[in-house]
Protein backbone atom coordinates (compact mmCIF):
# COMPACT_ATOMS: atom_id res chain seq x y z
CA UNK A 1 0.00 0.00 0.00
CA UNK A 2 1.19 3.49 -0.79
CA UNK A 3 2.30 5.87 1.96
CA UNK A 4 -0.54 8.25 1.04
CA UNK A 5 -2.94 5.29 1.14
CA UNK A 6 -1.78 4.50 4.67
CA UNK A 7 -2.30 8.13 5.71
CA UNK A 8 -5.76 8.23 4.12
CA UNK A 9 -6.79 4.92 5.71
CA UNK A 10 -5.57 6.03 9.13
CA UNK A 11 -7.72 9.16 8.91
CA UNK A 12 -10.76 7.94 6.98
CA UNK A 13 -10.84 4.46 8.49
CA UNK A 14 -11.98 1.34 6.72
CA UNK A 15 -15.56 1.35 5.57
CA UNK A 16 -17.88 -1.57 4.84
CA UNK A 17 -17.94 -1.98 1.03
CA UNK A 18 -21.67 -2.72 1.19
CA UNK A 19 -23.82 -5.65 0.07
CA UNK A 20 -22.67 -7.30 -3.11
CA UNK A 21 -19.15 -5.92 -2.70
CA UNK A 22 -18.10 -7.98 0.29
CA UNK A 23 -15.81 -10.94 -0.34
CA UNK A 24 -17.54 -14.33 -0.21
CA UNK A 25 -16.33 -17.08 2.09
CA UNK A 26 -15.70 -20.37 0.27
CA UNK A 27 -17.70 -23.47 1.22
CA UNK A 28 -16.20 -25.42 4.10
CA UNK A 29 -14.34 -22.46 5.62
CA UNK A 30 -15.32 -20.88 8.91
CA UNK A 31 -18.24 -18.55 8.33
CA UNK A 32 -18.98 -19.97 4.88
CA UNK A 33 -21.58 -22.51 3.75
CA UNK A 34 -20.99 -26.21 4.51
CA UNK A 35 -19.17 -28.26 1.90
CA UNK A 36 -21.44 -29.73 -0.76
CA UNK A 37 -24.31 -27.36 -0.02
CA UNK A 38 -25.64 -25.55 -3.05
CA UNK A 39 -26.63 -21.94 -2.58
CA UNK A 40 -30.39 -21.69 -2.36
CA UNK A 41 -32.09 -19.74 -5.09
CA UNK A 42 -34.46 -17.11 -3.89
CA UNK A 43 -37.94 -17.04 -5.37
CA UNK A 44 -38.19 -13.30 -4.88
CA UNK A 45 -36.70 -11.05 -7.51
CA UNK A 46 -33.85 -8.95 -6.27
CA UNK A 47 -34.62 -5.31 -5.72
CA UNK A 48 -32.85 -2.83 -7.92
CA UNK A 49 -29.80 -1.40 -6.20
CA UNK A 50 -30.59 1.83 -4.46
CA UNK A 51 -28.47 4.87 -5.11
CA UNK A 52 -26.10 5.32 -2.23
CA UNK A 53 -26.43 8.55 -0.36
CA UNK A 54 -23.23 10.54 -0.48
CA UNK A 55 -21.07 9.76 2.51
CA UNK A 56 -20.55 12.48 5.05
CA UNK A 57 -17.16 14.08 4.50
CA UNK A 58 -14.58 13.13 7.09
CA UNK A 59 -13.60 16.10 9.26
CA UNK A 60 -9.83 15.68 8.97
CA UNK A 61 -8.97 18.31 11.60
CA UNK A 62 -11.35 16.70 14.13
CA UNK A 63 -10.09 13.17 13.43
CA UNK A 64 -6.45 14.26 13.87
CA UNK A 65 -7.31 16.12 17.05
CA UNK A 66 -9.10 13.05 18.42
CA UNK A 67 -6.16 10.77 17.55
CA UNK A 68 -3.75 13.19 19.22
CA UNK A 69 -5.88 13.27 22.37
CA UNK A 70 -6.31 9.46 22.43
CA UNK A 71 -2.63 8.78 21.95
CA UNK A 72 -1.49 11.50 24.32
CA UNK A 73 0.68 13.29 21.77
CA UNK A 74 -0.13 16.95 22.41
CA UNK A 75 3.37 18.14 21.45
CA UNK A 76 3.26 16.85 17.87
CA UNK A 77 2.91 19.68 15.34
CA UNK A 78 0.87 17.54 12.95
CA UNK A 79 -0.99 20.57 11.56
CA UNK A 80 2.20 21.85 9.93
CA UNK A 81 4.74 19.01 9.97
CA UNK A 82 4.58 15.96 7.70
CA UNK A 83 6.97 14.15 10.06
CA UNK A 84 4.72 14.75 13.07
CA UNK A 85 1.59 13.91 11.05
CA UNK A 86 3.08 10.56 10.08
CA UNK A 87 4.19 9.89 13.67
CA UNK A 88 0.69 10.72 14.94
CA UNK A 89 -0.80 8.19 12.52
CA UNK A 90 1.69 5.47 13.44
CA UNK A 91 3.50 5.63 10.08
CA UNK A 92 7.29 5.58 10.05
CA UNK A 93 8.38 9.12 9.14
CA UNK A 94 11.81 8.13 7.84
CA UNK A 95 13.41 10.03 4.98
CA UNK A 96 12.95 6.92 2.84
CA UNK A 97 9.18 6.95 3.44
CA UNK A 98 8.98 10.69 2.83
CA UNK A 99 10.91 10.26 -0.43
CA UNK A 100 8.42 7.58 -1.46
CA UNK A 101 5.51 9.86 -0.53
CA UNK A 102 7.12 12.68 -2.52
CA UNK A 103 7.34 10.42 -5.56
CA UNK A 104 3.70 9.28 -5.15
CA UNK A 105 2.44 12.86 -4.93
CA UNK A 106 4.57 14.22 -7.77
CA UNK A 107 7.13 16.33 -5.94
CA UNK A 108 9.68 17.55 -8.49
CA UNK A 109 12.29 19.13 -6.22
CA UNK A 110 15.25 17.48 -4.52
CA UNK A 111 14.13 14.59 -2.33
CA UNK A 112 16.56 15.38 0.44
CA UNK A 113 14.28 15.87 3.43
CA UNK A 114 14.61 19.64 3.26
CA UNK A 115 12.12 21.95 4.92
CA UNK A 116 10.89 22.86 1.41
CA UNK A 117 10.13 19.22 0.61
CA UNK A 118 8.47 18.55 3.96
CA UNK A 119 6.26 21.64 3.78
CA UNK A 120 5.23 20.72 0.22
CA UNK A 121 4.45 17.15 1.33
CA UNK A 122 2.22 18.32 4.18
CA UNK A 123 0.25 20.63 1.87
CA UNK A 124 -0.01 17.95 -0.82
CA UNK A 125 -1.25 15.35 1.69
CA UNK A 126 -3.92 17.74 2.98
CA UNK A 127 -4.99 18.57 -0.59
CA UNK A 128 -5.09 14.84 -1.39
CA UNK A 129 -7.28 14.20 1.64
CA UNK A 130 -9.62 17.00 0.55
CA UNK A 131 -9.71 15.60 -3.00
CA UNK A 132 -10.71 12.21 -1.58
CA UNK A 133 -13.68 13.45 0.39
CA UNK A 134 -12.06 14.90 3.48
CA UNK A 135 -13.24 18.14 5.01
CA UNK A 136 -9.96 19.99 5.44
CA UNK A 137 -9.94 23.54 6.82
CA UNK A 138 -8.14 26.20 4.78
CA UNK A 139 -5.60 26.58 7.59
CA UNK A 140 -4.35 23.05 6.89
CA UNK A 141 -4.33 23.44 3.13
CA UNK A 142 -1.62 26.08 3.35
From TrEMBL:
<dbReference type="InterPro" id="IPR022016">
    <property type="entry name" value="DUF3597"/>
</dbReference>
<feature type="compositionally biased region" description="Low complexity">
    <location>
        <begin position="35"/>
        <end position="55"/>
    </location>
</feature>
<protein>
    <submittedName>
        <fullName>DUF3597 domain-containing protein</fullName>
    </submittedName>
</protein>
<feature type="domain" description="DUF3597">
    <location>
        <begin position="3"/>
        <end position="137"/>
    </location>
</feature>
<feature type="region of interest" description="Disordered">
    <location>
        <begin position="11"/>
        <end position="56"/>
    </location>
</feature>
<dbReference type="Pfam" id="PF12200">
    <property type="entry name" value="DUF3597"/>
</dbReference>
Amino acid sequence: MSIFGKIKDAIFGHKDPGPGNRPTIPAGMAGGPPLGQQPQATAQPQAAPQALAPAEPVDVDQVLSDISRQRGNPDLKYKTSIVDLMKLLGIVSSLENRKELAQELGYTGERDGSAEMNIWLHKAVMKGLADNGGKVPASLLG
